[in-house]
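fyi for ur records
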Amino acid sequence: MSKSIVIPLVCAILGPFIEGIMNTTDKYVLTHKVKRPLSYAIVAGVVNLFIGIVVALCLNWSGVTSYREILFPALAGAIFGTQFLIYYQLLSKEDVSTVIGLLYLYPIVVAILSYIFLAEKFTLLTYIGMGLIMFGGVRLSGRVAVFNIRFGLLIAMLILLVALHEFFIKVATNSLPAINGLSISMITMGLTIFTGLFNKETRQGVLAEFKNLKWAAFCQTLTFMGMGAIYFAMAGLPATIVSTIAATQPLTVLLLEKAFHKCGVQICSDELLLPKLIPITAIVAGIFMLYGVV
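which gave:
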């Protein structure tokens, strides 16, 4: 194995595990510590902005000669910040394994867009993979406590945003070192989350949620590490490989969710393992087929 891909490969493997820990910790905090999820999101935004600025001040920017080099990581961060606001709303209402499992329907969106705009061809394996993903999505949606139009729209928005986020990270790594792009993304992510302050109820709850600053600091450090893993992985590996390995995240989340339950920490309402394990496994297997890894 070439030494040049060792670090990206390690990052690609660690990324889903780090983000799985982040997801389950987020769910614990939202369930047991937070009263207003969107107000808490503002606190998380402050932490993200702080991390991004501190990292940026420690880096060498002499090689950045054009605003275009900053544009794509800035877009990636802004998209992730928007995604964050939706993610907190969903996570406060539903099991984390269900939300993250449904989130991984996004490769179908990427495949369809590639077919329409990039003239990519579908193989038999592609159709089987898409079928497995849709089967898993339908089965998993049946585990949602209240599946209504609002929930469906939020999930659809989240799926689209995740697909765009990964795309812009890949583009950003073509023009900037991964760590520089990461710092820009963290800054714009934090600034985008602040748009939640336009909501009066969110503004009113921010000061009260600052009591959870230590939890926000811990979770957003994991966010920084998880996003960093994606950046470094994308910098050295094809996007399809990184996305395929990342598809193991829902399984990681499901297992961590059950580990919390075994330890007596309640973070899920649907405690049955098999009804969620089957559709999530189908989604993961479908993504591997969709990207032609099997």
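Residues 3-290 form one domain. thats all i got for now
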